[in-house]
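Thread: 2'-deoxyuridine complex, take 2
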Amino acid sequence: MTDTGTDGGTGEGAGTGTGVDWAALKDEAVRAMGHAYAPYSKFPVGAAALVDDGRIVSGCNVENASYGLGLCAECGLVSALQATGGGRLVAFTCVDGHEELLMPCGRCRQLLYEFGGPEMLLETVDGPRPMSEILPYAFGPDDLSRGA
Ligand SMILES: O=c1ccn([C@H]2C[C@H](O)[C@@H](CO)O2)c(=O)[nH]1
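Output below.
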């Protein structure tokens, strides 16, 4: 069932019942987006995620004069995750320059899957959805251990 209820003062907003403060995550994604370096696409992106120890990590896109070398916001986020102690991603959101929800590109879905697995919740226009729905039939670390 899609959960679009109000937060009843809990600060959870849409997605109540997930135990995630989605509004706080969005605030952090918007803050990060404000630091984006996107002079070529003019498409700033900010991403933020809740880690299983309660901290929030974020990232922004960083482009390059050699266009193909640009880094998505999610790249910065997973780098920040590792650089600040690691852990598992529990919930994720991403915004564009209009502060509207943005779905991660294909490559970034794979990046997020590495650190959040199939259960990580990702905010969509239809509410929070598990990564298993966003990257179905995913390739991941388990496949490597099976093949080794
Ligand atoms: O999930 C995404 C999709 C796009 N971008 C960035 C890459 C590029 O800098 C700009 C336009 O594609 O948006 C991200 O940061 N994350």
